[in-house]
Amino acid sequence: MMAFDIIYSDDRTLLLFRFDHRMLDARGAEALLNLIFNMKVSANSCYNKDFCFSHGGAAVDGKNKCFFNGGGAAVDGKNKCFFNGDGVAVDGKNKCPDLSLLPFPVQGSQLHSWQSRFVSGRIINRFLRAVYPQNGKAASLPVGRKKPELNFVVVPFNMEETRQFDANTLKKAGYLMGGVYLLACAATVFDFFFSQLGDSGDMVVPVNIDTRGMKMASSEIFFNRISFLMFSIKRNLGKEKMISYIKQQFLQQIKEKNPHHFKNATLLMRILPIKVTGFFMNQIMKEKPYSFSFSYIGEQAFHQEHILGHKVKRLFHMPVVPIEPGIGIYFTRFNGKLNLVVSAFDNKAGKTVIDFLARAVKKEVLSGHGI
Amino acid sequence: MAGLDALNKRNAGIGNHSQIVIEIAGTMKQELLLKWLDLAMKSSFLFRGELSGHGILPRSGDGKNHLSILLRFIFKVWICVIPIKWNDSFVSVAAFLFRKIR
């Protein structure tokens, strides 16, 4: 269900945390990493006989190795600890404390309140029927071979580019409307792209949103807590109109508490194994394909500046996009800097296409003009 | 950018799982990470069985709990088929029936 990969490149390391959505959603996974790397063992702690943390990295008994010096930096096993193998300080004063246990994420499975969940399901059902184009299918990418593989393209923004994005957002969409602006930029690019493919249908875009607050409680880490907003976007609007069009829909859906109803209705599906649920959901989505998936996570749940003595330079998500629409544009923000990831199945869009889309979306975000 | 290029090349074959990528300065020793994760897992809720004690995961080795979960699934399957159909009338009927049964 969870796995770590390490990729070494030049003078940096990429730590990949892979996880299953049966267990975590993306922000929950980020919070779990934060929890794991935030264990209170920064000083005076020992584990087994060869894994200690010391303040100064000064000499001990000459047997044990120390992985950290006082500044938290790795010391490649050459320096030695304050503590011996039993966790007792050699100066006889300090004792190695027990490791702080991680806070326990208490939560229930929420298999109750069926009536309210059914009511939410009815509201969402009506909403989905209203938002989907009545005269045919939404614009979507054609399907290729049956067993697709997932591809990602990662495009980072530097601080200056992120400031440019903030300025464009404030100017064109308004305060706290970063997601709306980014969606308009992505939709502008896809509008152009679908036109090139000869698809003239309106676009329908599911947007993943997190209904948890900025400060996530440890009890909210597990399970998938994603909800949705759904946007119907007309073609050939131009960027300016598209922003106001999306903003209007956004405010309306928030006012009608659609994210709450989506989340509430989705809880009904917890009582089925995910594979069965996924099968049925994929069948439904194949009948009514969407144009592309989108999300913007503006609030990070991972707050560590260092991991095991190494400075954290960047964090970004590489989410699996649903089989339909098969392509997604995902923005995250870490330490103030924006990251863009395009995720797509290769039966929908090849590497060249998603490279083009990623660059075009970034250009669109920075330029503030139509494509 | 070299790191990202390596990542972009690598992840085509990494499987269909969502990932979070943390880019850190310097070279982190694999041994160090493994020890840390071992430490984290052994000292954390994940391997203390506390998740299972709160109805999130089946308790390991507890046959009765597995059975009760299975029975609960079977009993409730009929409910979850209905929202998948996503039809108003079905939802209304199901909600009515469920109220009566409860």
From TrEMBL, chain A:
The chain crosses the membrane at residues 173-194. It comes from the Bacteria. Keywords: Membrane, Transmembrane, Transmembrane helix. This is Condensation domain-containing protein. It comes from Desulfamplus magnetovallimortis.
